[in-house]
Amino acid sequence: xxxxxxxxxxxxxxxxxxxxxxxxxxxxxxxxxxxxxxxxxxxxxxxxxxxxxxxxxxxxxxxxxxxxxxxxxxxxxxxxxxxxxxxxxxxxxxxxxxxxxxxxxxxxxxxxxxxxxxxxxxxxxxxxxxxxxxxxxxx
Length: 139
Description:
Layout: E1 19-20, H1 21-39, H2 43-48, E2 73-77, E3 80-83, H3 84-116, H4 118-131, E4 137-138
Parallel strand pairs: 1-4
Antiparallel strand pairs: 2-3
Helix pairs in contact: 1-3
């Protein structure tokens, strides 16, 4: 049996990895599912706000933005006033099935897509490394 090494191991220096555009797209797709299910809006409108987001639409759906989450009462329709949590609860109750299915299928689809496109992704990343931006961005 070999003698055990004593002392600290030297840490390997690792090349910085770039931001993966495919992973960013997957994250945005998942964020879109969450904001559509809970707030009935897309992530950009959720953060930036939408001028018409504080109203009920003709179909009776409610949209919320980040700014509106901090208000106690959101929507009034005649004599009815809905709290923020009631609006979110109603949105989830109406759309939870499609949201759950998409939260499962999106990662599976991206994994399959990456597997199929692996040769093209590798070639593109090689070209990005040769051009000098490979440490910042990758596919």
